[in-house]
Amino acid sequence: MTTHHTTTQKAQHVRDWRASGLTRLQYCRLHGLSSHAFHKWLRLPDDGVSVTDNPVLLPVCILPSPEPAPPDSLITLHLPGGLPYRLPSRTAS
To answer: NCBIfam families annotated for this entry (predicted)?
Structure first.
């Protein structure tokens, strides 16, 4: 049976492991954790806060372009982590 851990729990396990003096494998066996999953947890931010714990909307201001965009042009949003998200610049009326 798979146990699901919150981001806070994952960060706490990482902190506890670092303070334990055990190897990752020893700590995972002692606590019944998957060593593969635990390895991924090491890349999580150590603030213990999940993105879904405190959702935030950021204000965006879109200014009109001095020149109309061609009908086939795209708007590119760069998401956190550098992932580009392309949208059509015009929508159907």
So the answer is: IS66_ISAeme5_TnpA
Rg of the chain on CA atoms, in Å: 22
Burial profile 37-51: b = 16 or more Cβ within 10 angstroms, e = fewer: ebeebeeeeeebebe
Q: What is the pLDDT of residue 33?
A: 94
Instruction: Write out residues in the chain with pLDDT < 70, as ranges.
Output: 1-2, 46-55, 91-93
- pLDDT for position 69: 73
Q: How far, in Å, are 22, 77, 91 from residue 29 at the CA level?
A: 11, 43, 54
For 40, half-sphere exposure in the C-beta direction (CA atoms, 13 angstrom radius) is 6
Domain extents in the chain: 7-41
